[in-house]
Design brief:
two-stranded parallel sheet; 13 helices; elongated; 2 strands; single chain; mainly alpha; 262 residues
Length: 262
């Protein structure tokens, strides 16, 4: 292999993927090259995506995902134009690169989660893309395991997601969609806890009606809970939590709660 610090990135990439995998020694060389000046520029970001696309699903060294996520997070969050933010150009770039090969692999999903968990702000399009990508990945096997709960938590409470640590309506709908799709399945026990916590936060810790369930929130809750024709154990636990902690609850929702006690 030519000197990895001076050869064109396209040649360096070709040499790395020649055997179809990225090993530990190659990871060390990649890090040395792309971090030589302390900045990950767009050419180097393209280089990282090309390596990942070419070896997606291969038996790469476990350090590859870590470097891929670190470098591309640095590219979009440590730039001079919009530090700690995902601007329109960066959102478009990330979405285009990730969708380019028609699939979102585990490294790209980890990247999306890490960016949302660390960005101060992100565009609505990017946040929607992350939620959609994560939902598809979680529902692929029909259950929600512990690592997926942790990813979901990072996304909805990450500062880049919607309204920061608050849970906005898009995130709340995302949580309900996951619950409806996996209701009655062998999900990890932490899923129920996160479901109740996140939805209660959405309706009780909002700026418009803090501590209260207003009419809009009540209508939304009824629609979401009854949308699949049943009240599952997670939804019942949610209503009990709201009933216990809300200062006021609209009449229609209160009636639904009372019916569950009979």
């Amino acid at each position: 292999m030519s000197n990895h610090m001076t050869q064109p990135l396209t040649e360096f990439a070709a040499a790395i993927i020649d055997d179809g995998v990225i090993d530990a020694e190659e990871i060390t060389k990649i890090r040395e090259r792309i971090y030589a000046d302390g900045v990950i520029d767009r050419e180097e970001a393209d280089f990282m995506f090309s390596l990942n696309d070419a070896t997606s699903g291969a038996n790469n060294d476990q350090g590859w995902q870590g470097l891929f996520v670190e470098a591309l997070t640095d590219h979009v969050l440590k730039d001079e134009e919009s530090p700690n933010e995902i601007d329109d150009d960066e959102a478009s770039y990330l979405i285009t690169k990730i969708e380019a090969d028609g699939k979102i692999d585990s490294n790209e999903l980890a990247l999306l989660v890490n960016i949302v968990a660390n960005a101060k702000t992100a565009t609505d399009d990017f946040n929607a893309f992350v939620l959609s990508s994560l939902k598809s990945a979680v529902l692929e096997d029909g259950i929600i395991d512990e690592s997926e709960v942790q990813m979901i938590r990072s996304v909805i409470y990450g500062t880049g997601g919607g309204a920061g640590s608050d849970v906005d309506r898009a995130e709340a709908d995302f949580i309900f969609d996951l619950n409806d799709a996996t209701s009655g399945k062998d999900n990890h026990s932490s899923w129920k806890e996160l479901f109740v916590e996140a939805i209660a936060k959405h309706v009780l810790e909002d700026e418009e009606s803090p501590g209260e369930v207003d009419e809009d929130e009540g209508e939304w809750l009824i629609k979401r809970i009854e949308g699949d024709g049943k009240y599952d154990e997670n939804e019942k636990a949610l209503l009990k939590n709201i009933e216990k902690n809300a200062k006021s609850i609209p009449g229609k929702l209160k009636t639904k709660m009372e019916m569950l006690h009979t």
